[in-house]
Specification:
Arc Repressor Mutant, subunit A, 2 domains, disordered N terminus
Length: 199
Amino acid sequence: MAKSGKKPSGGDWKRLARDLTSSNLSQAMTACEELQDKLGGSLQAYFYRRLPRSALKLGDHCDCEQEVWLRLWQNARSGSFDPRRNVVAYIWGIARNVLLEQIRDLPPDLTSDTGELPPPDDIVEQDENLRNLSRCLSRLGDKDPQAYDAVMETWFSELSERKAARKLRISASTLHERKHHGLEFLKRCLDGKLPRNEP
């Protein structure tokens, strides 16, 4: 995918999801590039930890990461990605599918050292957890967009609080407070302790 030449900006995840499906190709490409900047390192680390060590010699963790972005781009352009969904959870769902397909297609002699690959039952459980997390993140974004941004920048983009605060143009103490409120909301949501009528 060619680069648009525009430098990614901002930390608005909902905007990125909308821009990704924009009919303006340059805008969509910029959104995809920004998502790559934010999550590319985490994806590579994910594949590096979970792929068999023998496969890593072949550079498959980099190929897997590129496959994630290719599928995201194709889904966004074909209309199968709904921009109202949580884009981060959607990307990690693609990543897990890519990982499972990659390991399934490896020769038997390269699958004996998978190390951290979870058993199928755990993968099913992770899928359910991902759906719950996506739902709770959407609720947080509706209820408190500022806390949502703080959580997304520090938790998913893995920025330090100081860097995230600089990016969001707020003080580090404000960032910390918003992140704390956001994580508390997510914990209550995931534990089923929020009223159903609460956003």
